[in-house]
């Protein structure tokens, strides 16, 4: 995509430097949901015993592994896929350590080659390499706006990972980190135009977009020639508390009439009365299209089915996405990014207005 010249220039001028840094905040964004899971299982326990004619008692999901493994195997064998899917999903969630999603803020100290240089200049969409204790360094997208006086990372615990378990459970305020960067020129904001901005992400793929979105509003890039540009964020995950910055995006949605936040959750209704979107995020965009500006007949059948559905989220001013006036930024797992490229292409959006970064 044609990158904003000012941002491109700053990225080119920024030198990759080594800095010591001090942690100033560590906050878990997910929560311990064991009690909720136990309550959800309680509502199904007796029905399962009757359906499968099980005589033995079924204890808590996390304490009766073998018994529940037999239950899920039998449910699957009997074609009870919906109930089996619920139990499997709850069991997997219960096994996930807490916390598994944290934000870490730090202040940058002096550069290795100049102790008086405490600046860490970056642009939205860039990332940094982080070292902590003796663990192997890893790179993480920067979630904070360059206008802030701190740097923030969004960390998701990777099962079996080298660094993320330590960052999620051991990092505390006052700890020292080693930071190298900034890196990256692959994911950057376009030069302001009349086009609306559409961000699509899964999980921590939203980190660079949080930096971008905050920067857009701080710098007035949400306007062009005196007119508002709509800024959309479609963010997907399995569970509500696995949506990074969920409450902050909700608040921004309330404060800014031209910011539209559409979260979608595939499993949250196993635990709560989630009334929002549940489709995979790569297809949610289709429900919010401006139908008068979209040739729905040109969509492949598998996409048209989603476009025919009414939106679940009440968008301020009944705003809709006009494919001919959007620039699209995508970041997340490959299983999401690949289909969204097909979706965007089917809407007639040129490659010059699509920026994709995938992982995993």
Beta strands, count: 13
What's the helical proportion of residues? Answer: 25-40%
CATH superfamily name of the largest domain? Nucleotide-binding domain of ferredoxin-NADP reductase (FNR) module
Strand content: 15-25%
Label the CATH architecture of the largest domain. Answer: 3-Layer(aba) Sandwich
Amino- and carboxy-terminal Cα gap: 23 Å
Largest sheet: 6 strands, antiparallel
CATH domain fold name of the largest domain: Rossmann fold
pLDDT < 50 stretches: none
> In CATH's first tier, which class of the largest domain applies?
Alpha Beta
- Based on helices, strands and strand pairing, what is the structural class? alpha/beta
Number of domains: 3
- Cα shape: flat
Radius of gyration: 22 Å
GO molecular function, one term: oxidoreductase activity
Region (Disordered): 1-25
Pfam family, one: NAD_binding_1
InterPro entries: Cbr1-like_FAD-bd_dom, FAD-bd_FR_type, Flavoprot_Pyr_Nucl_cyt_Rdtase, FNR_nucleotide-bd, MRET, OxRdtase_FAD/NAD-bd, Riboflavin_synthase-like_b-brl
